[in-house]
Write a structure and sequence with these properties.
- The chain is of the alpha+beta class.
- It has helices spanning about 35, 55-65, 70-80, 85-95, 125-130, 190-210, 250, 280-285, 295-310, 365-375, 380-400, 410-430, and strands at about 5-10, 15-20, 25-30, 100-105, 115-120, 140, 145, 155-160, 165-170, 175-180, 215-220, 225-230, 235, 240-245, 245-250, 320-325, 330.
- The chain folds into 3 domains: about 5-105, no CATH class; about 115-230, no CATH class; about 240-440, Phosphatidylinositol 3-kinase Catalytic Subunit, Chain A, Domain 5 (Orthogonal Bundle), CATH 1.10.1070.
- It has a 6-stranded antiparallel sheet, covered by helices on one side. The chain has a 4-stranded antiparallel sheet with strand order 3-2-1-4. The protein has a 3-stranded antiparallel sheet with strand order 15-16-17.
- Helix 6 crosses helix 11 (about 380-400), helix 9 crosses helix 11 (about 380-400) and helix 11 packs antiparallel against helix 12.
- The longest helix is centred in the C-terminal third of the chain and has 24 residues, at about 410-430.
């Protein structure tokens, strides 16, 4: 029945149909035969093969991972009068521009109908909406929910053309994600924090690998500070914006959004031993699907080391993504890099353990060696990379703190953050030499 079917498009190309049975609550994905035969066609994830034999649960988990979380999901649910557990209803409402290449549209419609449509957002209007977030959800503009990517924070998808910002509709797609300073006073200078961490990651990767391994970011002053994150799943062309297919680690592993933390049942004394969520060990199961395994491991190691350097305790299974192509997967640019431990009122246990250690300050050389054993990363290789990356961090953190983009009290904050990272790097350097020395029997 077409009421419970959606057509999937990658750009303007028909991919197939998502179907839902409201009686049994089962999902099904049916690829179009032309897509399967198309040399440019690709499976939506390693667990949704072109043969079309994926289970209902796998299809449901893939779709659910496309939806926003937390308050953003609450807003989408309330605005649309669709229950939060109605996954099919929500993807029907929000699915025209998801993360990646896919558009979900009702049967008989196409994603680019109406041609390119762009509505400019004057900075004064953006500032007004930032100030009114407590009264009016930031994701709702012109009567439409504009937040259709996963995550908790206030975000707005925009098309950025020079210094101008636009709401994109019709055949246009967004190019940037805007993230204003959180409303909570418990997280001051979050915009400067994330900007610093992302820029530092690129300083390090440029020095070590001659490439930017994190997404591009800039701070907009409207005058409130807003982080503008360039979408790596979008490519600007002369007249349009191409969309690239990506999946997050939960989708790559066929795991639910509820398992994005390794301790998927929480950290209570009676359940903290349960570790069935996304872990570094599980993450390395994706290695077999990588187009270039060496490059993929290199990027994942950088992500792991930034977690240790920054104190990014919230680096979970939805904070790492992959380009998904016919030939396989490739790790995307890093994103959502933040020093969470700067905020004392926020939980600091790591989303993923190093070995059995979830506390940042509890991680010593044995935990790092154990991490290598579980992920099958050669310990000498990890020790070498950890050393090089930490040495670079000591130099580059101080340089990034001097960036003139930071103003007023932000300067004091990033200076303290740089000092924290230098101290972390120095401690990690002391551990690096011992990582290869442990014997197999120790694990």
């Amino acid at each position: 029945m077409d009421d419970y079917a959606l057509h999937l498009y990658a750009g303007e190309v028909f991919v197939g149909a998502l179907k839902f049975d409201p009686g049994s609550e089962e999902f099904a994905l049916e690829y179009d035969p032309a897509w399967v035969k198309n040399p440019a066609g690709f499976p939506l994830s390693p667990h949704l093969p072109l043969a079309g034999d994926a289970s209902s649960g796998t299809v449901k988990r893939f779709v659910e991972n496309l939806l926003p979380e937390g308050n953003a999901l609450d807003v989408a649910s309330k605005h649309s009068n669709i229950m939060k557990n109605n996954i099919f209803g929500l993807i029907r409402h929000l699915g025209r521009e998801t993360a990646g290449a896919l558009s979900f549209v009702p049967v008989g419609q196409k994603p680019g109908e109406g041609g390119p449509q762009a509505r400019e957002i004057p900075l004064a209007e953006l500032e007004e909406r930032i100030q009114r977030r407590a009264q009016q959800p930031f994701s709702v503009w012109d009567g439409k929910v504009r937040m259709s990517v996963a995550g908790f924070q206030d975000k707005l998808l925009v098309l950025k053309d020079g210094d101008k910002l636009f709401l994109a509709d019709g055949s246009l797609a967004s190019t940037h994600i805007l993230k204003p300073q959180p409303l909570s006073e418990a997280m001051p200078f979050m915009v400067a924090n994330e900007h610093f961490c992302m820029k530092l990651a690129n300083r390090i990767s440029q020095s070590r690998f001659n490439a930017d391994y994190a997404a591009e970011v800039e701070i907009l002053r409207v005058p409130s500070a807003v982080l503008a994150v360039k979408r790596f799943d979008r490519r600007r062309t002369k007249d349009s914006v191409d969309r690239l297919h990506i999946i997050d680690a939960c989708q790559a592993l066929d795991m639910s959004v509820t398992t994005k933390y390794e301790r998927n049942m929480g950290e209570g004394e009676d359940v903290k031993h349960i570790r069935d969520g996304v872990s570094f060990q599980k993450l390395m199961d994706v290695r077999k699907d990588l187009i270039d395994q060496a490059l993929g491991v290199q990027r994942i190691v950088l992500w792991a080391v930034t977690t240790l350097l920054l104190g990014n305790s919230d680096a979970h299974g939805k904070n790492l993504s992959f380009y998904s192509q016919n030939a396989g997967l490739a790790v995307t640019e890093l994103y959502d890099l933040v020093s969470v431990v700067q905020y004392k009122n926020i939980h600091h246990d790591l989303a993923m353990a190093f070995g059995d250690e979830f506390e940042l300050n509890g991680i010593k050389s044995f935990a790092l060696a154990d991490f290598c054993e579980r992920t099958r990363i050669p310990r000498p290789y990890f020790a070498r990379e950890l050393t090089k990356l930490c040495e670079l961090a000591i130099v580059q953190a101080k340089l990034q703190a001097e960036d003139s983009v930071y103003v007023d009290e932000e300067r004091k904050f990033v200076s303290g953050l740089a000092n924290f990272i230098v101290e972390r790097a120095a401690n990690l350097l002391k551990m690096a030499g011992d990582i290869p020395k442990f014997k197999k029997v120790n694990f």
